[in-house]
Design a protein that fits this description.
The structure holds 2 protein chains of 2 kinds. Chain A is mainly α. Helices cover 65% and strands 2% of the residues of chain A. Chain A has a two-stranded antiparallel ribbon. Helix content of chain B is 35%, strand content 23%. In chain B, the strands form 3 sheets. Chain B has a 6-stranded antiparallel sheet with strand order 2-1-3-4-5-6. Chain B has a two-stranded antiparallel sheet with strand order 7-8. The longest helix of chain B is centred in the first third of the chain and has 45 residues. Classes of the chains: A mainly alpha, B alpha+beta.
Amino acid sequence: MSLFSKKNKEIFLGPLSKNNPVIVQVLGICSALAVTAKLEPALVMSLSVTAVLAFANVIISLLRNTIPNRIRIIVQLVVVAALVIIVDQVLKAFAYDVSKQLSVFVGLIITNCILMGRLEAFALGNGPWESFLDGVGNGIGYSIILIIVAFFRELLGSGTLFGFQVVPQFLYDMGYQNNGLMILPPMALITVGCIIWFQRARNKDLQEK
Amino acid sequence: MNRQSNAYTVIYAAVMVVVVAAVLAFTALSLKPQQEKNVAIDKKVQILKSANIAATAADADELYAKYITESFVVNDKGEVLSGVDAFNVNVEAEFKQPDADRQMPVYVASIDGATKFILPVRGAGLWGPIWGYVSLDDDKNTVYGAFFGHKGETPGLGAEIEKDFFTSQFKGKHLFKNGEFKSVAVMKVGQTALNGEDQVDAISGGTITSQGVDAMLKHSLKPYSAFLTSKK
């Protein structure tokens, strides 16, 4: 079987749109709401989740024939928790400012439903390479949504992108105001809702009868 | 081999825990020096910012060495304690102690020939701890600048305490009125502070955090009164 067979492409590309973990499976919503007030933390969070998901998938996939069935959830949790702690430590050492902004949310990757969902549903039954693709694909699918949401929230809520002022001063002089509501979690949920609406309007087969 | 047996399960779990513990211990130990360096640099950036010096992680060490001439630890009687390194004092723990037992750091900066005193402050906001540094002119009364940080205040509301528009209000305010410690009050726009102290405007929508800053300044700076009124 080739590394990039049709099936593998489907594994990788599916989660980006038609099988997106956030907007189709509606997993990992809490972190999508919490870290998307600014683009920078959203981007770092995306990278962290993608890395943890890909490696956890590979490790569980390698171990899948040895894991005792009765403690498989615990084994998955331990692997995820260990990876998350490593990511947290690395961020503290090399991206201190961002790790301060993300604070507890890096630790909360452990509770992200996408991780357990993918490990349980995919990695336990597939080989390491497929699992890796699946992890990266789902990670990117999650990242896309986070970054879209963070883009709108930072632009409309703070008038900046990646911390740089993009809304020009003369607009403020004319009476434009940043929308404080965009910074609060409810608007993140509404933004995610809008993305889901847009996605389902374009893909009729995703609509429930 | 029976992978569903109790013995296999127990051994599997035990081995897994040992392996994971070893990996994590190794990671934590090998990254620790770098992390401690980051924390120290971050602290220097905060101290410098309170004295209106824009420092970044890259030039913090250099600027700190250039501007901060001296640091020492005082108690609530204004006496300088010897043998304690001010930079390594655990301010959070010290400020929970009764006034008489506190070891309170003071950083002395020399900026363009003028002496500034920088004092740490600690308190609680809405969601978690808030902290900061307040710099004073050499009369030990007039505020020269302030820096505030927070663990997790609401972005756009309480978190605004770290923004310039808020901290710059403190410049020129006085901690003492007629020789008595009053602190600087953080008040809702239009309200007047009760005890005649100087006041700055609180942040709309960040009421609890603003009140936290108000309380933090009062509680953290009051024990410094003896030091601040001494002639040294």
